[in-house]
Protein backbone atom coordinates (compact mmCIF):
# COMPACT_ATOMS: atom_id res chain seq x y z
CA UNK A 1 0.00 0.00 0.00
CA UNK A 2 2.74 2.41 1.09
CA UNK A 3 4.76 1.42 -1.96
CA UNK A 4 1.80 2.13 -4.28
CA UNK A 5 1.31 5.55 -2.73
CA UNK A 6 5.04 6.30 -3.03
CA UNK A 7 5.04 5.25 -6.68
CA UNK A 8 1.93 7.31 -7.39
CA UNK A 9 3.45 10.33 -5.66
CA UNK A 10 6.71 10.08 -7.60
CA UNK A 11 4.80 9.59 -10.85
CA UNK A 12 2.77 12.75 -10.08
CA UNK A 13 6.02 14.66 -9.45
CA UNK A 14 7.35 13.57 -12.82
CA UNK A 15 4.10 14.50 -14.56
CA UNK A 16 4.06 17.91 -12.83
CA UNK A 17 7.67 18.56 -13.75
CA UNK A 18 6.92 17.68 -17.36
CA UNK A 19 3.86 19.93 -17.36
CA UNK A 20 5.92 22.84 -15.99
CA UNK A 21 8.60 22.30 -18.61
CA UNK A 22 5.99 22.08 -21.32
CA UNK A 23 4.46 25.36 -20.14
CA UNK A 24 7.91 26.96 -20.04
CA UNK A 25 8.61 25.85 -23.58
CA UNK A 26 5.38 27.22 -24.93
CA UNK A 27 6.15 30.60 -23.34
CA UNK A 28 9.44 30.84 -25.18
CA UNK A 29 9.14 32.02 -28.74
CA UNK A 30 12.31 30.35 -30.01
CA UNK A 31 11.69 27.37 -32.29
CA UNK A 32 14.95 25.79 -31.18
CA UNK A 33 13.81 24.06 -28.07
CA UNK A 34 14.31 20.32 -28.15
CA UNK A 35 11.57 17.93 -27.07
CA UNK A 36 11.34 16.74 -23.47
CA UNK A 37 14.06 14.30 -22.61
CA UNK A 38 12.67 10.92 -21.64
CA UNK A 39 12.53 10.05 -17.98
CA UNK A 40 13.76 6.49 -18.33
CA UNK A 41 17.35 7.32 -17.62
CA UNK A 42 16.48 9.25 -14.51
CA UNK A 43 14.00 6.89 -12.92
CA UNK A 44 15.41 4.65 -10.28
CA UNK A 45 15.17 0.98 -11.29
CA UNK A 46 12.62 0.05 -8.59
CA UNK A 47 10.08 2.41 -10.17
CA UNK A 48 10.35 0.76 -13.53
CA UNK A 49 7.97 -2.13 -13.22
CA UNK A 50 8.37 -3.19 -16.86
CA UNK A 51 12.09 -3.95 -16.37
CA UNK A 52 12.80 -7.10 -18.30
CA UNK A 53 16.50 -7.81 -18.47
CA UNK A 54 17.61 -10.67 -20.62
CA UNK A 55 21.22 -10.93 -19.53
CA UNK A 56 22.58 -11.58 -16.08
CA UNK A 57 25.83 -9.85 -17.01
CA UNK A 58 24.31 -6.38 -16.90
CA UNK A 59 25.62 -4.52 -13.87
CA UNK A 60 23.39 -2.46 -11.62
CA UNK A 61 25.70 0.57 -11.56
CA UNK A 62 27.73 2.23 -14.26
CA UNK A 63 30.06 5.08 -15.19
CA UNK A 64 28.21 8.15 -16.43
CA UNK A 65 28.58 11.92 -16.55
CA UNK A 66 25.82 13.80 -14.81
CA UNK A 67 25.11 17.45 -14.28
CA UNK A 68 23.08 18.56 -11.29
CA UNK A 69 23.14 22.24 -12.12
CA UNK A 70 23.82 24.41 -15.16
CA UNK A 71 27.18 26.08 -15.66
CA UNK A 72 30.62 25.77 -17.23
CA UNK A 73 32.46 22.52 -18.00
CA UNK A 74 33.17 22.13 -14.26
CA UNK A 75 29.55 21.06 -13.64
CA UNK A 76 30.17 17.85 -15.61
CA UNK A 77 30.64 15.12 -13.00
CA UNK A 78 32.15 11.78 -13.96
CA UNK A 79 30.56 9.25 -11.60
CA UNK A 80 31.04 5.52 -11.18
CA UNK A 81 27.89 4.89 -9.13
CA UNK A 82 25.06 5.72 -11.49
CA UNK A 83 22.17 3.24 -11.83
CA UNK A 84 21.96 1.29 -15.06
CA UNK A 85 18.52 2.18 -16.47
CA UNK A 86 15.88 -0.40 -17.28
CA UNK A 87 14.32 -0.44 -20.74
CA UNK A 88 10.62 0.36 -20.58
CA UNK A 89 8.08 -0.82 -23.09
CA UNK A 90 9.24 0.21 -26.55
CA UNK A 91 12.81 0.81 -25.39
CA UNK A 92 16.10 -0.99 -25.84
CA UNK A 93 19.02 -0.98 -23.42
CA UNK A 94 22.28 -0.29 -25.26
CA UNK A 95 25.81 -0.85 -23.97
CA UNK A 96 27.48 2.15 -25.56
CA UNK A 97 30.81 1.63 -27.31
CA UNK A 98 31.34 5.22 -28.34
CA UNK A 99 29.34 8.43 -27.91
CA UNK A 100 29.28 11.69 -29.85
CA UNK A 101 30.01 15.15 -28.47
CA UNK A 102 27.79 17.78 -30.03
CA UNK A 103 27.59 21.51 -29.53
CA UNK A 104 24.00 21.06 -28.34
CA UNK A 105 25.39 19.29 -25.26
CA UNK A 106 26.88 22.63 -24.20
CA UNK A 107 23.45 24.30 -24.55
CA UNK A 108 21.92 21.83 -22.09
CA UNK A 109 24.93 22.21 -19.81
CA UNK A 110 24.74 26.01 -19.73
CA UNK A 111 20.95 26.08 -19.55
CA UNK A 112 20.48 27.82 -22.92
CA UNK A 113 18.15 24.90 -23.60
CA UNK A 114 16.22 24.08 -20.41
CA UNK A 115 16.03 20.45 -19.32
CA UNK A 116 15.37 18.61 -16.05
CA UNK A 117 18.33 18.14 -13.75
CA UNK A 118 20.06 15.95 -12.70
CA UNK A 119 20.72 14.96 -16.27
CA UNK A 120 23.06 12.71 -18.19
CA UNK A 121 24.06 14.67 -21.28
CA UNK A 122 24.76 13.23 -24.73
CA UNK A 123 22.53 12.83 -27.77
CA UNK A 124 23.95 9.85 -29.63
CA UNK A 125 26.02 6.71 -29.32
CA UNK A 126 26.81 3.42 -31.01
CA UNK A 127 26.72 0.20 -29.05
CA UNK A 128 25.23 -3.24 -28.59
CA UNK A 129 21.70 -4.05 -27.48
CA UNK A 130 21.86 -5.90 -24.15
CA UNK A 131 18.16 -5.93 -23.21
CA UNK A 132 14.77 -5.22 -24.72
CA UNK A 133 11.75 -3.66 -23.08
CA UNK A 134 8.50 -5.45 -23.73
CA UNK A 135 6.89 -5.01 -27.14
CA UNK A 136 10.08 -4.00 -28.88
CA UNK A 137 11.11 -7.06 -30.84
CA UNK A 138 8.41 -7.09 -33.48
CA UNK A 139 8.17 -3.51 -34.73
CA UNK A 140 11.77 -3.13 -35.89
CA UNK A 141 13.18 -6.63 -35.47
CA UNK A 142 15.81 -5.75 -32.87
CA UNK A 143 17.41 -8.47 -30.81
CA UNK A 144 19.96 -8.67 -28.02
CA UNK A 145 23.44 -8.55 -29.56
CA UNK A 146 22.52 -6.21 -32.44
CA UNK A 147 24.99 -3.40 -33.06
CA UNK A 148 23.02 -0.16 -33.21
CA UNK A 149 23.40 3.58 -33.57
CA UNK A 150 20.91 5.63 -31.61
CA UNK A 151 20.05 9.28 -31.29
CA UNK A 152 18.22 10.36 -28.17
CA UNK A 153 19.31 11.40 -24.65
CA UNK A 154 21.80 10.35 -21.95
CA UNK A 155 24.67 9.17 -24.14
CA UNK A 156 27.51 10.08 -21.73
CA UNK A 157 27.14 6.71 -20.05
CA UNK A 158 28.09 3.07 -20.37
CA UNK A 159 24.43 2.06 -20.73
CA UNK A 160 21.46 3.99 -22.10
CA UNK A 161 17.80 3.01 -22.44
CA UNK A 162 16.41 4.61 -25.60
CA UNK A 163 13.18 4.30 -27.59
CA UNK A 164 13.72 1.57 -30.18
CA UNK A 165 12.33 4.00 -32.76
CA UNK A 166 15.47 6.13 -32.46
CA UNK A 167 17.94 3.33 -33.22
CA UNK A 168 19.12 1.76 -36.45
CA UNK A 169 21.14 -1.38 -36.99
CA UNK A 170 24.70 -0.69 -38.04
CA UNK A 171 25.51 -2.57 -41.25
CA UNK A 172 28.55 -4.84 -41.33
CA UNK A 173 31.61 -2.97 -42.53
CA UNK A 174 30.56 0.35 -41.00
CA UNK A 175 32.70 1.27 -38.00
CA UNK A 176 31.03 2.55 -34.83
CA UNK A 177 33.41 5.53 -34.71
CA UNK A 178 32.69 6.55 -38.29
CA UNK A 179 28.95 6.40 -37.79
CA UNK A 180 28.97 8.36 -34.54
CA UNK A 181 31.25 10.92 -36.19
CA UNK A 182 28.67 11.45 -38.91
CA UNK A 183 25.27 10.49 -37.52
CA UNK A 184 23.63 13.42 -35.72
CA UNK A 185 25.82 15.89 -37.65
CA UNK A 186 25.27 14.18 -41.00
CA UNK A 187 21.52 13.80 -40.58
CA UNK A 188 21.36 17.48 -39.66
CA UNK A 189 23.23 18.40 -42.81
CA UNK A 190 21.14 16.15 -45.05
CA UNK A 191 17.86 17.58 -43.79
CA UNK A 192 19.23 21.13 -44.12
CA UNK A 193 20.41 20.79 -47.71
CA UNK A 194 17.55 18.62 -48.95
CA UNK A 195 14.53 19.69 -46.96
CA UNK A 196 15.06 23.11 -45.33
CA UNK A 197 16.34 24.47 -48.63
CA UNK A 198 16.78 22.00 -51.48
CA UNK A 199 20.20 22.89 -52.85
CA UNK A 200 20.41 22.78 -56.65
CA UNK A 201 23.41 22.27 -58.89
CA UNK A 202 25.13 25.62 -59.36
CA UNK A 203 23.70 27.24 -56.21
CA UNK A 204 26.25 29.41 -54.41
CA UNK A 205 26.18 28.42 -50.75
CA UNK A 206 27.81 30.07 -47.74
CA UNK A 207 28.65 27.70 -44.86
CA UNK A 208 29.86 29.11 -41.55
CA UNK A 209 32.10 27.11 -39.20
CA UNK A 210 32.91 24.87 -42.15
CA UNK A 211 35.68 22.99 -40.32
CA UNK A 212 33.39 21.88 -37.49
CA UNK A 213 31.65 18.55 -36.90
CA UNK A 214 28.64 19.48 -39.03
CA UNK A 215 30.61 21.84 -41.30
CA UNK A 216 33.01 19.32 -42.81
CA UNK A 217 30.11 17.03 -43.73
CA UNK A 218 28.11 19.90 -45.16
CA UNK A 219 30.92 21.01 -47.44
CA UNK A 220 31.32 17.50 -48.87
CA UNK A 221 27.59 16.92 -49.33
CA UNK A 222 27.12 20.32 -50.97
CA UNK A 223 29.94 19.60 -53.40
CA UNK A 224 28.36 16.25 -54.24
CA UNK A 225 25.15 18.15 -55.08
CA UNK A 226 27.07 20.41 -57.47
CA UNK A 227 26.97 23.59 -55.36
CA UNK A 228 29.59 26.31 -55.34
CA UNK A 229 30.74 26.41 -51.72
CA UNK A 230 32.07 29.38 -49.81
CA UNK A 231 33.17 28.35 -46.33
CA UNK A 232 34.21 30.36 -43.31
CA UNK A 233 36.53 28.99 -40.64
CA UNK A 234 38.74 30.35 -37.87
CA UNK A 235 42.48 30.00 -38.51
CA UNK A 236 44.84 28.79 -41.22
CA UNK A 237 44.68 25.12 -40.23
CA UNK A 238 40.90 25.04 -40.43
CA UNK A 239 40.94 26.94 -43.73
CA UNK A 240 43.33 24.37 -45.23
CA UNK A 241 41.10 21.51 -44.04
CA UNK A 242 37.98 23.02 -45.61
CA UNK A 243 39.83 23.64 -48.88
CA UNK A 244 40.99 20.03 -48.91
CA UNK A 245 37.32 18.96 -48.78
CA UNK A 246 36.66 20.73 -52.08
CA UNK A 247 35.25 24.10 -50.98
CA UNK A 248 35.61 26.64 -53.77
CA UNK A 249 36.46 29.58 -51.49
CA UNK A 250 37.36 29.61 -47.82
CA UNK A 251 37.51 32.75 -45.69
CA UNK A 252 39.36 32.91 -42.40
CA UNK A 253 36.73 35.04 -40.67
CA UNK A 254 38.94 35.53 -37.61
CA UNK A 255 41.86 37.02 -39.58
CA UNK A 256 42.26 40.79 -40.08
CA UNK A 257 41.37 40.52 -43.76
CA UNK A 258 38.63 37.96 -43.27
CA UNK A 259 36.80 39.93 -40.59
CA UNK A 260 34.97 41.70 -43.40
CA UNK A 261 33.79 38.39 -44.79
CA UNK A 262 30.56 39.92 -46.11
CA UNK A 263 32.58 42.15 -48.46
CA UNK A 264 34.63 39.14 -49.61
CA UNK A 265 31.47 37.10 -50.27
CA UNK A 266 30.08 40.01 -52.32
CA UNK A 267 33.31 40.19 -54.33
CA UNK A 268 33.25 36.44 -55.01
CA UNK A 269 29.64 36.65 -56.22
CA UNK A 270 30.16 39.86 -58.27
CA UNK A 271 27.95 41.82 -55.89
CA UNK A 272 24.99 39.45 -56.19
CA UNK A 273 25.22 37.58 -52.88
CA UNK A 274 24.77 33.87 -52.23
CA UNK A 275 21.68 31.76 -52.88
CA UNK A 276 21.64 30.33 -49.38
CA UNK A 277 23.51 30.73 -46.09
CA UNK A 278 23.78 27.92 -43.55
CA UNK A 279 24.60 29.72 -40.31
CA UNK A 280 25.29 27.76 -37.12
CA UNK A 281 27.35 30.49 -35.46
CA UNK A 282 24.36 32.72 -34.67
CA UNK A 283 24.99 35.86 -32.63
CA UNK A 284 28.27 36.90 -34.28
CA UNK A 285 27.28 36.18 -37.88
CA UNK A 286 23.49 36.55 -38.23
CA UNK A 287 23.58 40.17 -39.46
CA UNK A 288 26.36 39.44 -41.93
CA UNK A 289 24.44 36.44 -43.20
CA UNK A 290 21.44 38.67 -43.99
CA UNK A 291 23.77 41.01 -45.88
CA UNK A 292 25.62 38.27 -47.74
CA UNK A 293 22.50 36.57 -49.09
CA UNK A 294 21.18 37.58 -52.50
CA UNK A 295 17.82 39.20 -53.23
CA UNK A 296 15.16 36.47 -52.81
CA UNK A 297 17.79 34.30 -51.11
CA UNK A 298 17.48 31.94 -48.14
CA UNK A 299 19.09 32.01 -44.70
CA UNK A 300 18.93 28.93 -42.49
CA UNK A 301 20.06 29.51 -38.91
CA UNK A 302 20.59 26.20 -37.24
CA UNK A 303 22.86 26.79 -34.26
CA UNK A 304 24.13 29.13 -31.57
CA UNK A 305 27.88 28.47 -31.33
CA UNK A 306 28.50 32.14 -30.47
CA UNK A 307 25.09 32.70 -28.85
CA UNK A 308 21.52 32.77 -30.15
CA UNK A 309 20.23 35.02 -32.93
CA UNK A 310 18.29 37.82 -31.18
CA UNK A 311 14.59 38.37 -31.92
CA UNK A 312 14.46 39.51 -35.53
CA UNK A 313 11.99 42.19 -36.72
CA UNK A 314 10.30 40.51 -39.65
CA UNK A 315 10.54 43.73 -41.66
CA UNK A 316 14.27 43.12 -41.94
CA UNK A 317 13.44 40.57 -44.61
CA UNK A 318 11.43 42.90 -46.84
CA UNK A 319 13.97 44.90 -48.88
CA UNK A 320 15.55 41.78 -50.41
CA UNK A 321 12.51 39.46 -50.03
CA UNK A 322 14.66 37.06 -48.01
CA UNK A 323 13.33 33.73 -46.76
CA UNK A 324 14.53 32.39 -43.42
CA UNK A 325 14.28 29.18 -41.42
CA UNK A 326 15.31 28.04 -37.96
CA UNK A 327 15.21 24.25 -38.29
CA UNK A 328 16.17 21.55 -35.85
CA UNK A 329 16.88 17.90 -36.55
CA UNK A 330 14.38 16.60 -34.00
CA UNK A 331 11.65 18.33 -35.98
CA UNK A 332 12.54 16.35 -39.11
CA UNK A 333 13.05 12.98 -37.41
CA UNK A 334 9.84 12.15 -35.60
CA UNK A 335 8.33 9.12 -37.35
CA UNK A 336 10.18 5.83 -37.66
CA UNK A 337 10.03 6.16 -41.46
CA UNK A 338 11.88 9.47 -41.18
CA UNK A 339 14.67 7.92 -39.10
CA UNK A 340 15.02 5.11 -41.59
CA UNK A 341 14.87 7.37 -44.63
CA UNK A 342 17.51 9.85 -43.51
CA UNK A 343 19.76 7.23 -41.89
CA UNK A 344 19.55 5.27 -45.15
CA UNK A 345 20.71 8.31 -47.10
CA UNK A 346 23.63 8.82 -44.73
CA UNK A 347 24.69 5.18 -44.78
CA UNK A 348 24.65 5.21 -48.57
CA UNK A 349 27.05 8.16 -48.60
CA UNK A 350 29.35 6.52 -46.04
CA UNK A 351 29.35 3.09 -47.60
CA UNK A 352 29.97 4.43 -51.10
CA UNK A 353 32.96 6.40 -49.81
CA UNK A 354 31.43 9.69 -50.99
CA UNK A 355 31.42 11.05 -47.45
CA UNK A 356 34.61 11.04 -45.39
CA UNK A 357 34.50 11.53 -41.65
CA UNK A 358 37.08 13.38 -39.60
CA UNK A 359 37.45 12.47 -35.96
CA UNK A 360 39.02 15.27 -33.96
CA UNK A 361 39.84 13.16 -30.91
CA UNK A 362 38.40 10.36 -28.81
CA UNK A 363 38.35 11.35 -25.12
CA UNK A 364 37.83 8.87 -22.28
CA UNK A 365 34.47 9.71 -20.69
CA UNK A 366 36.30 10.75 -17.51
CA UNK A 367 37.91 13.61 -19.49
CA UNK A 368 34.61 15.07 -20.67
CA UNK A 369 35.33 18.47 -19.09
CA UNK A 370 38.37 18.94 -21.33
CA UNK A 371 36.36 17.80 -24.36
CA UNK A 372 33.76 20.52 -23.68
CA UNK A 373 36.49 23.12 -23.14
CA UNK A 374 38.10 22.26 -26.49
CA UNK A 375 34.78 22.38 -28.37
CA UNK A 376 33.72 25.71 -26.90
CA UNK A 377 37.27 27.05 -27.21
CA UNK A 378 37.10 26.54 -31.01
CA UNK A 379 40.05 24.15 -30.79
CA UNK A 380 38.42 21.24 -32.62
CA UNK A 381 38.06 20.28 -36.25
CA UNK A 382 35.60 17.58 -37.25
CA UNK A 383 33.88 15.50 -34.61
CA UNK A 384 34.91 14.79 -31.04
CA UNK A 385 33.95 11.42 -29.52
CA UNK A 386 33.75 10.06 -25.98
CA UNK A 387 34.67 6.53 -24.92
CA UNK A 388 32.48 5.36 -22.03
N1 LIG B 1 19.53 22.62 -35.55
C1 LIG B 1 19.96 21.39 -35.35
O1 LIG B 1 19.19 20.44 -35.30
C2 LIG B 1 21.43 21.15 -35.16
C3 LIG B 1 21.93 19.86 -35.16
C4 LIG B 1 23.31 19.70 -35.05
C5 LIG B 1 24.15 20.79 -34.90
N2 LIG B 1 23.59 22.03 -34.85
C6 LIG B 1 24.44 23.22 -34.69
O2 LIG B 1 25.49 23.16 -35.62
C7 LIG B 1 26.61 23.82 -35.08
C8 LIG B 1 27.80 22.93 -35.21
O3 LIG B 1 27.71 21.89 -34.24
P1 LIG B 1 28.94 20.94 -34.01
O4 LIG B 1 28.58 20.04 -32.89
O5 LIG B 1 29.34 20.36 -35.31
O6 LIG B 1 30.07 21.95 -33.48
P2 LIG B 1 31.38 22.42 -34.24
O7 LIG B 1 30.99 23.06 -35.54
O8 LIG B 1 32.35 21.32 -34.29
O9 LIG B 1 31.93 23.52 -33.26
C9 LIG B 1 31.42 24.82 -33.31
C10 LIG B 1 32.28 25.73 -34.19
O10 LIG B 1 31.62 26.99 -34.26
C11 LIG B 1 32.58 28.00 -34.51
N3 LIG B 1 32.35 29.14 -33.63
C12 LIG B 1 32.12 30.40 -34.06
N4 LIG B 1 31.98 31.23 -33.03
C13 LIG B 1 32.15 30.50 -31.91
C14 LIG B 1 32.14 30.81 -30.54
N5 LIG B 1 31.92 32.07 -30.08
N6 LIG B 1 32.35 29.82 -29.65
C15 LIG B 1 32.54 28.58 -30.07
N7 LIG B 1 32.57 28.21 -31.38
C16 LIG B 1 32.38 29.17 -32.30
C17 LIG B 1 33.96 27.37 -34.25
O11 LIG B 1 34.58 27.18 -35.52
P3 LIG B 1 35.60 28.33 -36.07
O12 LIG B 1 36.74 28.34 -35.11
O13 LIG B 1 35.95 27.85 -37.42
O14 LIG B 1 34.82 29.59 -36.05
C18 LIG B 1 33.65 26.03 -33.61
O15 LIG B 1 34.61 25.06 -33.93
C19 LIG B 1 26.26 24.23 -33.66
O16 LIG B 1 25.82 25.56 -33.67
C20 LIG B 1 25.10 23.31 -33.34
O17 LIG B 1 24.25 23.83 -32.37
C21 LIG B 1 22.26 22.23 -34.98
UniProtKB/TrEMBL annotation:
GO terms for cellular component: cytosol. Residues 71-386 form the Enoyl reductase (ER) domain. One of its GO terms (molecular function) is mRNA 3'-UTR AU-rich region binding. It comes from the Eukaryota. Keywords: NADP, Oxidoreductase. This is Probable quinone oxidoreductase. It comes from Talaromyces stipitatus (strain ATCC 10500 / CBS 375.48 / QM 6759 / NRRL 1006) (Penicillium stipitatum). The lineage of its organism: Eukaryota, Fungi, Dikarya, Ascomycota, Pezizomycotina.
